């Protein structure tokens, strides 16, 4: 017991411990009590914990009343379990998304790079959302519930599920807004007097002592002041004051309750408690409202977002640490609406408040880009200085210096020579070796601004040549070259560069549609220009003498040999240095004149040629003169064989030269009859080209030039006279060349007074009458087809026969009426008459869709000349089998179904169910297409897999599973499974068949 005398448990200030010790003294034996007290120091924390538990176990509480222990336990568990884990997942995903997006510094950078890339995988985000939701469900009484709701909303936002995210943040605004609770409390306290707080005796004594000391101090101060005044009075001979009264402050004037109430409320509102500082931590509400605004922007609810941001700006308690996030979100709002002036003001605030140097640098660069768009180059130059002072990463610093040189040149801070000198200095620096393409591009931009187009083209071509996998920069160079060639009216080169542009330019880029449209418009124009040039070359060769032809043949052979040697050297280099897989085939010349079309520059063409060679000649040994039956074969070394082939026999040499001539000039006409065919093809191509210049490009000068050149070349050919004169009239009218326009109008009136072209010019009402007649014709055809559909074939046939009499034999519906008439004959007169009528349709309208449909029907009926697939009349289209190998690019998965009894909707439903159960987070989209000339082969397409490995993994997973297609013992399908890249998928669609791709798939994907 002696040990216990040195321990006084009542010194412990925790009243639960006191209660526990009293309980132990009264209810435990002396020995146990001594042992417990002896070990009290060692078991102090245990007793403390037991005491807290006992204190927290209150049996009766109000509905919303929660003990501190319970709130603390729930907060602790939510914070360090659910919230922490969900937050870690979300932050890692955000970093991953930011790294996954590659900035294009020639375009306006996105404020939020993590949202600028492709839709992310939802798996991790759903895990984070689930953890946050679990924390909310299990620990409602904790103080981290609002933070979990914030994490839920952020996860939904990153998943691009903006509608759900909006609902989450909207719920937070209604249910977790601290302002509502605090405002209610303030109103109550302003109308009722607060009860006086109880003051302890110790505090009263202390206050009393303090007041007495102050009183004494004031008395001494008054004495000193009085003594001073008396001394001054004696000195001045005035009356000495006996004492100085105490200074009294004027009492405030009394006012009514109506006057004091607003003053009290105002004081409470300003000096009251911060509503966001709850339970010793900051509420998640302000940050959630910033995210709410971002979500509204994505939902294009711009007015609501603007009102929300204004409300947050006016909130006096809005946290300072979130000011940069709020300003950044507001800038995003204005950028999305293309209100760049307001965006710039918001970015100024965001840059000012930014705490992270990396964020400040990025926002300053975007600010500079906005100023560049507003043509404020000097201000942009200054903004780029802020970027450099923020110590950005190397890539951003490099691009900042490039932009600063450009802006400095535009703002006359640098001359062209100084700007070029700085850029050339950057070219020489080793650290910039991977970014030479961007430097060359900037040099090209300066040359272009100086109106030096040839130099600009050369620099842009060098940019492409120096590209090392930077598809973003290559897209810029391709597009700039395409636009330049388009401006200089080199439409063949422009078409090639637009094609290259759309292979590397992102679909989300706003310029993609323009590039795609330009490539489409120039397709036929480039083909016709190439055809005309080729035909002109053929005519020139036809008119050459024999000696000139031989000289040309030798020159061509030498160019081939040089190109072969160059290709071999490049192939050797390619083996040693990794080439850019995403780079389109065909290097651009350093001069930037035209993209090369040489055969060996295209890997796809080489592979296709190799396959074609093996089909025709088999696996031949690589040797000289492999095709010559009289080549010398010896048992010596390869050099001896080669030497044996080099015969000095003049006859053999002459024969070799003749073979070369025959091979090179095999397409040259042999007589005037064949030459006339070439001239006719040129005439037709020139006419089509002239009309396309006006219809597609609205290029009236080229339209007039081409058509007038055609008339000059072929004055005796009158096949397209009416159309040619009509187009020349329209083009000259638009060019305001009235004499030439009148010239062509006079020719039309003189030779073709009753043609539609003449009437459309001379008769003001002709256009309206034509439209009305066209509408009437359309109604007539619809009624005829409806009659046919009802089975009244006789009436339908009569209407078809009447149509040419009523609307002319050249009306636009003539092919349709002809096919419909044939269908009626088939139902009225039998198979033989049916086949004859179909053959007439095919002969009269060979290029029309009705002709294609008639051929399909003729094959089904086995009409004469259409028995089976190998018909003489229907030429099988050439298959484009130049498929490319891009294992690291996006792949589609295809299910090819064969047979007649295919329930496509059931198959698609089964695949959807399978993916929902097994690949819920892979975002696989399902669609179907039909291939074949008659569009009768169904193919189901699943998009998309990131690369070959993921596509093959899915294929191997499903190929032996019956439930994948919904098969069972009664229902089975003939099917094939393929994976295919986007580029190869386009070729399959173009070919309308899988022929060719099967072989490619077996070679490149099957093990």
What can you tell me about this protein's structure?
The structure is a single chain. The chain has 1007 residues and is mainly alpha-helical. Helix content is 64%, strand content 4%. Strands 4-5-3-6 form a 4-stranded antiparallel sheet, sandwiched between helices. The chain has a two-stranded antiparallel ribbon with strand order 1-2. A hairpin with a 5-residue loop joins strand 4 and strand 5 (937-945).
* Counted beta strands: 6
Low-confidence residue ranges? 1-14, 55-63, 183-194, 244-271, 578-595, 628-648, 650-655, 869-876
Write down the Rg: 44 Å
Q: What portion of residues belong to β-strands?
A: under 5%
Helicity range:
55-70%
Briefly note the structural class of the backbone: mainly alpha
How is the main sheet built? 4 strands, antiparallel
Q: How many distinct helices? A: 41
Question: What is the CA-CA span between the terminal residues?
Answer: 87 Å
The dominant shape is: extended
Mean pLDDT: 78
- Strand numbers in spatial order across the main sheet: 4-5-3-6
Task: Offer a quick outline of the entry.
This protein is mainly alpha-helical and 1007 residues long. It is extended, with a radius of gyration of 44 Å.
Break the fold down into its secondary structure elements and pairings.
Layout: H1 15-27, H2 30-38, H3 44-56, H4 68-100, H5 123-138, H6 145-158, H7 162-175, H8 178-191, H9 201-236, H10 257-271, E1 277-278, E2 281-282, H11 285-298, H12 302-314, H13 323-336, H14 340-353, H15 357-373, H16 377-389, H17 394-410, H18 416-428, H19 436-449, H20 453-465, H21 471-487, H22 491-504, H23 512-542, H24 546-576, H25 603-617, H26 638-645, H27 650-664, H28 672-695, H29 700-713, H30 721-734, H31 738-751, H32 756-762, H33 766-789, H34 793-807, H35 814-829, H36 831-844, H37 849-861, E3 891-898, H38 904-918, E4 925-931, E5 937-945, H39 948-958, E6 974-981, H40 982-991, H41 997-1004
Antiparallel strand pairs: 1-2, 3-5, 3-6, 4-5
